Amino acid sequence: MRPLALALLAAxxxxxxxxxxxxxxxxxxxxxxxSRHTDSLATVDGTLAYAERATGGAFTRxxxxxxxxxxxxxxxxxxxxxxxxxxxxxxxxYLVTVNPPHIEPAQRHDGLARDxxxxxxxxxxxxxxxxxxxxxxxALRRIEAALEPDSPYDWR
Length: 156
Known about the structure:
By secondary structure, this protein is of the alpha+beta class. It is built from six helices and four strands. Helix 4 runs antiparallel to helix 5 (120-134).
């Protein structure tokens, strides 16, 4: 048994199987994020499509952008969208690697990606909260955004 394991290890090193890069191609990274099953067992793409239908056009997807920063062993996939009267933004970030395949939100405990991970209904509630914030004066929006990390309340 031991000689067989050593032979397999030597063959994998010689063939370069262990030398696969961690970074996926742009298309592969986007496909991995789109097909990711969230905590609610819905896919990211399905949740975004549901939000577009349910909001009647107030939320629209813009596309995907892959960002690679020097020295990071992962690619960032940003989902661009437009909500209400705000300008388009790429505020939903995912970190993606391929060897081993792993996808996770860049900010697991903050922002819209957190709510997207909890399913379509939680994401719709978060979009409604963000749309309500758009109606407030800009100064109040900045104050609330600065105080939100220290808030003891979870408004989801």
